[in-house]
Amino acid sequence: MKQEFVISSLGVVSPNGIGKEAFWKSLEEGRYAISNIESFSTEKFSVNSGGEVKNFDPKVFLGQKGLRNLDRSSLFLMTAAKFALDDAKLAITESNTDDIGVVTGTTFPHLWSMIEFDREVLKEGLDFSNPALFPSTVLNAASSQVSIRFNIQGFNASVSTGYTSGLQALKYSLMMLETGKAKTILCGAVETLAISLFFGFYKLGYMAGINGQMISCPFDKRRNGPLLSEAAAVFSVESAESAKMRQAEILAKIRSATCYFDGFKIAKIDPDGEGLEKAIVRALDEAGAAASDIDYISSCANSSLEVDKTEVKVLQKIFGDNLSRIPVSSIKSMIGETLSASSALQIASCIGVMKSGIIPPTINYSEKDPECNIDCVPNKAQKKDVKLALVVSFGPGGYNSACVLEKYADDHR
Fold first, then answer.
1. Phi/psi of residue 400, each to 5°?
2. Less Cβ around it within 10 Å: N or C end of the chain?
3. DSSP state string for 119-175
4. Residue 381: φ, ψ to 5°
């Protein structure tokens, strides 16, 4: 009999709320978390807005010690991990530390540390640069800091696939659980804003406000690109049996998590969405679910012309007439494009949806696009009992992922 894997805790640090309850409430109320960027100067750009986590003080959550020289991504992820551990009521001891793993989806946050280290080397010279900046220049720095902070001595891994990193981290976590490499895994994702990341996307012409209105409006005909954001989300993944033994609250059952790489052009998505279609079909097949069984779809749509219409095209092909009754909303309308953290936040959002029966809206929607003809839950949340939710994520270069989550009923306990 196939093992049943579940999510038994959740921690979130996001532009629209720190902590899962604040995150869920903001989504339900349709709060727009995009504002003027304050952590670096945007005066040389025509775009100056993003989803920034304001007034974040890590000492409030992590205490005073051990935070010096840690970059923003490590502090975000450590805070989200602390929330998840507390939520799971999981005490890490010498007897269980080898049975706990950490898997983090992340792509860009080390850019700031790399540039700062290189700048100091060039400015101060090799003998006078600060060596404490160097450890944060590697991709796995944030994930490693979680293990160091909480004395987690099982395996530690980082997954870097852009938008899909969070979902691919979940897929990797399930593989490690299935093969007995760990009993519990802190699975999550993180991305932080930095001027280097902002500049790169700006030079590519891939941000709202360069060629139109500076607003995140997925599925809307006015959309002209995403607005970048930052966040971290961490959840504990384990067998249902393990969670029950600890009397943990089971937040959701993981029915499937799939990946498909279609090898399309770098920095481009396949306009036909063939890889995305295969990832979604696989997710449904592995979950043992028909298209008619899905109650809600958490969309990857980020307000770019190609991403939004490609996703709709694929969903229409897979779901057919069923799509007319399935709400498909994008939380990126509220929090922007968090890149590696985006699919982890979508999972976090779906957990809230199944718990409350409230589907978050796609806000800033005013002008219908015939190529995005779906129920995108425009501007106002919908009430619906969601038992099965589909999370969709894909991005430039050929990465495609999907997962099916199931509401965990009380009678399962």
1. -140, 135
2. N
3. HHHHHH-TTTS-GGGGGGGSTTHHHHHHHHHHT--S-EEEE--GGGHHHHHHHHHHH
4. -60, 150
